[in-house]
Each structure stands twice: as C-alpha cells, then as structure tokens.
Amino acid sequence: MNARTRFLSFIDRAAKTLDVEVEATAEDHLRMIVIVKLSWPIYKTVGARTLTLELDREETTIAEVVAYLDRHHPGFKDELARGTGDGLADYLFFVNETLVPQKDAATTSLHDGDKLFVILPIVGGASPWLNGS
User: What is the value of pTM for the model shown?
Assistant: First the structure.
C-alpha cells in the first residue's frame, strides 16, 4: 500500500469515526517516500547514512533527488561528481537492488517506497547494509 492509498484509507476511516462524509481524491495529497542510503564518504555531506525523503509528488527521478539533496545539503552534488578524485571510481546508483548507470539518472523513475543507494564501489559490495538491514 503506497502513501497515497494509506492517506485515503485514513481519511475514509476518520470520516466514519466522526460520522462525517469526506470526499478525498488521489490528487488531494500526492506524497511519496523514498529512502536514500549513502556510503562513505558522501554520507558526510548530509550527516547521515540513511535519509527518508517525503516528497509532494507521485514519482521522481534520481536526478531530481540528487538536486533536492544538493539544495538541502550544499556540496552533495560536488562530492558525487568527485568520486575518489582519481577518475578511477565513481559513485554508483542502485534503485532497490538494480544498478542504474549515471547517464540514466535523469530518466530513471523512483516511486513511493523505493530505496536509492548511492555507493562508492571501493567501499564494499553486497552486504547487509545494501539489503536494507
């Protein structure tokens, strides 16, 4: 059940409890939640390894999330572009458990409940952290 469905269900239950008829449509509150998990060293720019973003939209893209993070945490985009600084390793994007090339960041959609992982490949591989544990 996505956030919009939960909201509409809540409104419906609240209306029944209060014995009031309320009309709510999906357009009233388009909300989505995206979990962003960051590896070393980029997590230092935001001060946390995991962020929960609540956005007023039905879907977004990786590029839009990166822009959002850069607006709220200046330097995020610079660190993302820097990688290791030697040109050998760049950050990788995973949506849930699927690798997304950086060139596809502007066109790859994220939906309610998706997890976006931003990982520098030299800091690990498949681990409990990647699996959301």
Answer: 0.67
